[in-house]
Amino acid sequence: MDIKGMDKDECVLESAKNPEEGGFELKLDNSENTVFLRADKIDFKNWDIQLEKHLTRAWSMDTESHTRSEEWEIDLAKLEIRNVIAHGTYGTVYKGLCDGQDVAVKVLDWGEDGIATEAETSALQAAFRQEVAVWHKLDHPNVTKFIGASMGTSDLKIPSKNNPADVQNSFPSNACCVVVEYVPGGTLKKFLIRNSKKKLAFKVVIQLALDLARGLSYLHSKKIVHRDVKTENMLLDVTRTLKIADFGVARVEAQNPRDMTGNTGTLGYMAPEVLDGKPYNRKCDVYSFGICLWEIYCCDMPYPDLSFAEVSSQVVRQNLRPEIPRCCPSAFVSIMRKCWDAKPENRPDMDEVVRLLEAIDTSKGGGMIPDDQTRGCLCFSTARGP
């Protein structure tokens, strides 16, 4: 029997030798016949050639599939890490350089090696892949531009504090990183703190609010729920344009709201349903946006004198919300109250919020201070702010 050209997957060569023929037993798939052949008549060299061609073809197809599904993956060798920008719950942010462009590199650490189970790590990595596949397609002036990501950090070199020439990598094996544009103006939170005494002109308040509203409206249109909307996660560029950042807990919105549960976000900005552990959807971002509106207008901190437990209990059980200054324009107050309504279904969608903000007339002031003055607002008897 001539077996040259036969696919090696189509037959199995058994080690049981036939003593009468001096050959090996060769069993054919989908056949009840057993054929005995002489070992010296089998063309193993041709088999090896055919097998190598088959494996090369399979490897090539797998590589192409890998490239197609992970076009967002960045070559970490292109990154030059400079210094630490910030530390957060989900990792560390570094300033760096990539192909001549200033970038921010966030290393996400899902737990120290040995802490998370293999199943937990796999689930987190799968979710990360899904979200990054969406992030890399985002393109909006009020959302930080995504540049790339990596499922590993083994090739990421961090300069030593004492000797910049000395680079090292000390990240856990399950860490990953996200690379986005570097926004030089700092966080919105710091900008508000700097203006805590003199406050902001009303037209500036509306401009910042509109930037944030438009960015969130865009994310929601892409089925992305940020889940941690707060002034610390908003960046300002050199022209004071606001850009939404920090997708550390962002998630592609689930088809079933019950799939989205758990305490995510920062306490003072968290919607009642999230604090109460109930299912939630993109309306949790609308609630957080309402708290941000108050903070932008007042340049103050919500609930500065309450503990975490008190905030959680009173927001859910007693409908606690930040105190609105008497001088706040009624149209602005109305938007805040709609956004932080206790019932998610009563809150407006972010595209409606954009329209409401665009309709506010800022030509006559109406904010904490007139455009041409810098004195403190008379709504507060004493200067307030963090």
UniProtKB/TrEMBL annotation:
Enzyme Commission code: 2.7.11.1
Reactions performed catalytically: L-seryl-[protein] + ATP = O-phospho-L-seryl-[protein] + ADP + H(+); L-threonyl-[protein] + ATP = O-phospho-L-threonyl-[protein] + ADP + H(+)
Stored Gene3D superfamilies: Phosphorylase Kinase, domain 1, Transferase(Phosphotransferase) domain 1
Enzyme class: transferase
Cited InterPro entries: Kinase-like_dom_sf, Prot_kinase_dom, Ser-Thr/Tyr_kinase_cat_dom, Ser/Thr_kinase_AS, Ser/Thr_Kinases-Pseudokinases
GO MF, one annotated term: ATP binding
GO cellular component, one term: plasma membrane
Any single Pfam family the record assigns to this protein: PK_Tyr_Ser-Thr
Residue ranges of domain Protein kinase in the record: 79-360
Protein name, per record: non-specific serine/threonine protein kinase
Source organism: Fraxinus pennsylvanica
